[in-house]
Structure to design on (214 residues):
């Protein structure tokens, strides 16, 4: 039986309430005054990801920083609408499949990088692997995959989180889908800070082989 909007659960990441939550968190006055996102924007830019497919783009916080031609995809239509309203190119999975097809056979669909930031902790292991595998065909040979997940304090602060992924879990996931791990680090502070600072992140960068069997 469908859930009415009035009965929508706040932990449903596909619903309007979650979009409102993202917008409220992002728009907090103290965050705007202190510009707390500046280090994270810097970190994303220094990765030099090129044309990126931002999987789980939400309302477009990271998408706004990525290179021209980048595309965001999110299963929440309300979040996609907010991102588009900001002048960003975002779409639902259905819209993405309609426009880009199921593989990167055309140059239009070949992205330099895939970004999954604060996405995989919202799903189980099998679903996470399936999500990454689904979008990998849209990555050019030798392209990058960047996985970002919260550390302990940040993980505990969101009831929509269902799986904690540390460096070991992210590495295993990357290797399972055939990626080579290039670099992994804690940001913005050393790993120990993640137990107290809610915005500390695990960042893993991996690479698709330059050719099949490479």
């Amino acid at each position: 039986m469908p859930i009415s909007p009035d009965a929508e659960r706040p932990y449903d990441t596909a619903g309007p309430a979650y979009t409102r939550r993202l917008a409220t968190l992002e728009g907090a006055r103290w965050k705007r005054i202190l510009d707390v996102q500046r280090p994270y924007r810097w970190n994303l830019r220094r990765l030099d990801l090129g044309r990126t497919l931002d999987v789980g783009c939400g309302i477009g916080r990271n998408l706004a920083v990525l290179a021209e031609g980048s595309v965001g995809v999110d299963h929440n239509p309300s979040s996609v609408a907010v991102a588009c309203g900001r002048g960003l190119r975002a779409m639902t999975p259905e819209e993405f499949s309609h426009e880009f097809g199921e593989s990167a056979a055309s140059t239009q669909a070949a992205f330099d990088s895939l970004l999954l930031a604060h996405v995989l902790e919202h799903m189980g292991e099998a679903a996470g692997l399936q999500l990454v595998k689904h979008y990998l065909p849209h990555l050019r040979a030798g392209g990058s995959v960047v996985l970002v997940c919260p550390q302990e304090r940040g993980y505990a602060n969101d009831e929509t989180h269902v799986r904690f992924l540390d460096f070991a879990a992210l590495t295993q996931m990357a290797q399972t889908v055939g990626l080579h791990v290039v670099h992994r680090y804690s940001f913005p502070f050393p790993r120990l800070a993640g137990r107290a600072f809610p915005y500390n992140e695990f960042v893993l960068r991996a690479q698709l082989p330059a050719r099949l069997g490479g």
Notes: The first strand starts at residue 52 and ends at 55. The chain has eight helices and seven strands. Confidence is low (pLDDT under 50) at residues 1-10. Helices lie at 16-26, 29-34, 38-46, 77-85, 93-100, 125-135, 152-156, 167-176.
